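Replying to the earlier thread about multi-chain prediction with a worked example.

Input:
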Amino acid sequence: MSATSAIALPTRSRSRAWKKLRANRAALVGAVVVITFVLLAVLAPILPIADPATTDWGKIRLAPSAEHWLGTDEIGRDLFSRMVWGARASLLAGVVSVLIAVVIGVPFGLVAGYFGGWTDSIIARATDALLAMPFLILAIALAAFLGPSLTNAMIAIGLSAVPIFIRLTRGQVLSVKTEDYVEGARAIGLGNLAIMAVYILPNVIPPILVQATLTVATAIIAEASLSFLGLGQQPPSPSWGSMLNTAKNFLSQAPWMAIWPGAAIFLVVMGFNLMGDGLRDALDPREH
Amino acid sequence: MTTRKLFATLLASAAMAGSAYAADLRIGLQEDPDVLDPDQARTFVGRIVFESLCDKLINISPDQQFIPELATEWSWSDDGLTLTMQLRDDAVFHDGTPLNAEAVVANIDRSKNLPESRRRSELTSVESVEATGEFEVTFTLANPDATLLAQLSDRSGMMLSPAAADAQGLGLATNPVCSGPYRFVERIDQDRIVLEKFAEHYNADDYHIDRVIYLPIPDTTVRLANLRSGDLHMLERLAPSDAAGVQSDGSLQFVSAVSQGYQGVTVNVNNGERANNPFGQDARVRKAFSLALDREAINQVVFEGVYAPGNQHVPPTSPWYDDSHPVEGRDIAAARALMEDAGVDRMPLEIQAANNPVQLQLMQVIQSMVAEAGFDVSIRATEFASMLQAQTAGDYEGSQVGWSGRTDPDGNLHAFVTCEGGLNDSRFCSEEVDRLLNAAREVNDMDERRAIYAEAQAILMEEMPIIYLYHQTWLWALRNNVTGFEGYPDGMIRLAGVRVE
Amino acid sequence: MLSYILRRILIAIPTLLLVSVFVFMLQKLLPGDPALVMAGEERDPEVLAYLREQYRLNDPLIVQYFHWLWNVLQGDLGMSLRTQHPVTKLIADKLPVTIQLAVMAMFFAFLVGIPAGIISAVRKGTLIDYIANFIALSGLSIPNFWLGILLILLVSVNLGWLPASGYEPFWRDPVRSLETMIMPAFVLGTALAATLMRHTRSAMLGVLQSDYVRTARAKGLREKVVILKHSFRNAVLPIVTLSALLFGELLAGAVLTEQIFTIPGFGKLIVDAVFNRDYAVVQGVVLCVAVGFILMNLIADVLYVLLNPRMRQTL
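Result:
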């Protein structure tokens, strides 16, 4: 009895949240920006643009023109096409690394919060210790260890973000595990796994969703930072961060090489932040 | 407007603060030097600082002839086994102790026997060294060694105060005591190294700068911005892409000198499993790779035409360059023909390269050039530490590396291509090449030596364990008020005669 | 109260031990043979063998760990493999640089973030609020290495107003010191200013809706007094604790900023050390940053309890 009402509640609030989200113009703008970049990234192979790896010695570091909308780079490649293909690396890195962090972090957080005791202490101390190490330094060391590549950068960023999700999930579990419906489920003899999956997890999802959206933003910047240090996407494949790394050497001769990738990172990250803020407002019960 | 005024005032006050030291020279370096102990040091950039800090037995002239420094003259015995050197009698160390034959003996001993010494391989031929007079030293060699003078004109020939070395041990690295025209004042890691003029130096009158401040600034754009704003007086290793800008800037001067070193692709021909591919096994495939390269275009595209295209271990400007094998142009048809001969249509090839934008730009240009000859090159960008490890362990197919270069040609070749060579990561081995390069070591006559190197070169051109690409040109940019600076092929900064006006 | 603080310190001990393990492992995971780097261009095999012996690179990991930990507990973080300076000296040299940078960034963030947060909370829903929010969000979204590059391009390369790099200790030349730090502090401070603004805004909003502010208003107090005396003083608590936490993050955020502006601080030290495989330096610096972070956490917790009367009673 109490079980059904408990499940019904999030569903109702979910539809309300959805309405609130749609009414939030800032979040909509964010979504439009993100979707535009996602479309560009997905459609890159079929868009009528130049090949991002084709070099042309005669067209080195050309300023933006009708032929090359955003100009060309240090070995004569079309920057517009490299920007579009670079979106794939950035978005992929953002999403995949957050998935890695969620898939590892949430179960640990669930277990720590649900069982408490020694399990909790050990996980909590390890989380504290990991959080004490600066995110970027951890990612740099991991990326250096795994060897420079986009995949490894994603793993490094994902692993570095795990403690955030452990801590968040654990806190959320602690706040719901004493709720009546959880006690009730335990009373009717449901197993731990079932209780976690059916009664606790759904309550954990909304804040995780908000955090994940915001972490995608951080992860995109982190990927750009690693690529900027040469630890991410490898040539000749483009990534916004590695494009900036090269552009840095030609600042006075070809400033446009530095402007586009940075602006793109800025826009996409802004998009995710707007969406994250919107989601948080929509899912926050306090402002009802 | 007001902010502008504020900045102008700030800048003016900074300039005033700077003018308190009228003869300061601020030099921008590309990297932070490593240990400041000539026996332990290992970086190129460190040698730039040593050039002013530590006198050497011998120096070189801009055209790479050996000239006296601490040693006023030297002579070889007829069998080439004894080298006798006369030292100048007016040199003193920065701690006031005299620089005499005993001091030289102690230094050579330290270079040869200190466990941490990186100089030991440079002095293996030296069996013993003796003070045969107050200012005369005699080297006794195990075998004739034409390369010894070159070693003594570099870090092996730098003299540290034996008193300070005894007192400080390895700690000397943090407070080096040499006998050069400038003495050590302070070092803040990654920030600055400060030297001041040593008034008791025998040639002090030729040095007009009172304080030298070396500032490591790795970013080329930032380094140049600092020069333009007057925060630096000069910088080394200007980026080629900035050369044109500096040349057209009325307030700056541009100085260049082709280096003694090279950049190339070292091929794994016999170093473990990964040598088992056509590129490692078949010299024709390597030749095809080389023919597919347009070295002049590489120089134009990546280095704005200011470096020197190359195909040998020394640059075309070197007296040791073999003119009978000039740099070839690109010939895709010939490359394809060689590939066909070798029975290879297309092949994948992994080449590792240092993880920095310039080296990666170079590799991407190469990648697209050799694709037409049938190579599908993938670039593995690695940091230097991992790259060296992969190279010695044989975990590579091709490796884009270089060598900073030595004054004696032996230093550019012997260790890399002889069977037992310490740096022979390709594990190329040819009895004939070994015989020739060993023979060249024992001959002191230049023409005779050149003939031997040409013979070795002919074999190496066929086998290509290293595919040479280009020779870096040392580029310096200076403010106009700095006079008297001359660029040397070793890339050092020599301050004799340099003034700030 | 005291027992709470003691408990917090006790909890920090296992965390610190775990940090030491992580820090040590992190290093051993890095690929590349440091002996090869140290041996130099010539790579003399005898020197290699000697170095491996000397730096205990041949010992089992666990032995290396305890040896390292033992030395750390005695205050010896080892020597830089690259320059042979003691790591403790390097840290002592670099810490003031990064702290100056962080303090200036923090100063900037407070100067901009808190007033902006108060104004936009008070003017909730107005154009000012939207603009402030938009700027704050931009501050959070802009990659700070890009911002740094753009500033160098504009201010140093094109206008020549400020030096593009360098560092001068404040005591040696205050003007020059500030000049070189303005841009980096601004770059480092943007994200922080944005965070502070958003937190101040939401804390103020919470307080402005509370009963006692309503009472204060009902009593006819002037709006300025209501906002500054009654509201802000109550909102300041979470901001103070947050600042302590953010200061730790600032030290970490300095990594890229210092790289861009060639500032010889902690961040540059660690990045260069990772790339040079200077094990002792990486270990020492990360350990130091982590310990600092844990201390800041501790201070934040204690401050929170001290400043919050309700919490004080429950303990």
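Chain C is about 80% helix and 0% strand.

Feel free to reuse this layout for your own posts.
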